[in-house]
Amino acid sequence: MNLNVLVLPGDGIGTEVTREAVRVLRRVAEKFHHQLSIAEGLLGGVAIHKTGQPLPDETARLALEADATLMGAVGLPEFDNWPPEKRPEKGLLAIRKLLGVYANLRPVRAYRALLDSSPLKNELVEGADLIIVRELTGGLYYGTPRGIEGQGADERGFNTMVYTRPEIERIARMAFTLARGRRRRVTSVDKSNVLEVSQLWRRVVSEVAAEFPDVTLDHLLVDNCAMQLILNPRRFDVVVMENMFGDILSDEASVLAGSIGMLPSASLGDKRPSGAWTGLYEPVHGSAPDIAGQDRANPLAAIGSVAAMLEYSFGLAEEAAAVNRAIETVLNSGHVTADLRPAGKPATTTEVGKAVCEAI
Ligand code: NAD
To answer: Average pLDDT over the chain, rounded to whole?
Structure first.
């Protein structure tokens, strides 16, 4: 297969972790006999320095040409006081919009070697393996009318949580399709006891479920879901929800894995004629200026993002599984970066990347 990938290292540790992710991608291509063509582009603070824009036109062109895009992280302290429109993070929002990615997937796995890093008791978290599917382009964060109006005691602020039937149908279909490749269970999260938009959400998700009779569906209220994620995370497989609920619950779920340096993410858009999803892959963490340039960052979230890319954009499940197994092997070896609190001397970013390649 020809894997046509754009890499956007971005700022800070973004450059270090994507370097290792690319090393792993090359190893997979070599081992499984795929053709790999990698382009590299500018995004974020580095792009502002070189071109004046957080998402330069050239990067936008490359992203539209690529089959999949791997990002590092963006953000530099020197831009902290700049207006939101001009900051490196604007580049992220702009590229998501450009590619039309409407679903954010965050897989969360409790690796056995990291159970002690999780704030939950080992017996609660052991075996947890779930994906949060968050709707990314609608809901409360985009709905109109929105604003602040009036004066004094009459001043009021307002936002609108709105979803159309097609928006709910497409994210529900994605969740059910993902579940077919996993344990065939979807949990849909809403607040239908209070919100009309959630009543529509629940009805449409149930209708879509009829197209997937081999997948089990249950519904949970968002407040109960927040509780169940902590009480019984193993009960979840694919968990689908609107934008703001997903923003909050995906952060909650992420602590199960023990370190932010372990969390990959995928943002997916429509399916291409080949059957693969348009995808943007990135670690959940930021550019970590406090450890940038020191070869200390954990590259496993970026490497896990490569596994997600292989699975969703290229349909290469076996290759993705090989990467995930290699991550587990490296974790079990104990030769890991400082954030995972190894017993002896911590491994460097580069050493972990090389160890994953060897394990593949
Ligand atoms: P951060 O995720 O960069 O760092 C938070 C803490 O986690 C830091 O102590 C950092 O050292 C540690 N950490 C993060 N990733 C790690 C890794 N792979 N290995 C080991 N330790 C790791 O969040 P922050 O400090 O709030 O933000 C720093 C910059 O990153 C800001 O400019 C912010 O806007 C940006 N940011 C970007 C993204 C993105 O590109 N998607 C996401 C979040 C934050």
So the answer is: 94
Instruction: Tell me which residue has its CA closest to atom 34 in ligand 1.
Output: 75
Q: Which of 287, 337, 352 to mutate to test the pocket of ligand 1 (most atoms within 8 A of CB)?
A: 287
Q: Is 262 in the pocket of ligand 1 (CB under 6 A)?
A: no
Q: Is 191 a catalytic residue?
A: yes
pLDDT at 33: 98
For residue 273, pLDDT beyond 80: no
The three-state secondary structure class of 298 is coil
Contact between 21 and 297 (Cβ < 8 Å): no
Average confidence (pLDDT) over 210-234 = 97
Task: List the beta strands (DSSP E) in the chain.
Answer: 2-10, 35-40, 68-73, 103-109, 129-135, 147-149, 156-158, 185-190, 216-221, 238-241, 264-271, 277-283
Q: Please measure the distance between the N-terminal and C-terminal CA atoms of the chain and give it in whole angstroms.
A: 18
How large is the average pLDDT for residues 231-260? 91
How high is the pLDDT of residue 58? 98
Q: Considering the candidates 218, 223, 270, 290, report the single residue annotated as catalytic.
A: 223
Q: Ligand 1, atom 8: nearest CA belongs to which residue?
A: 288
How far does the centroid of ligand 1 lie from the alpha carbon of residue 197, in Å?
34
Copy the structure tokens of residue 84.
Answer: 């939101």
pTM, to two decimals: 0.91
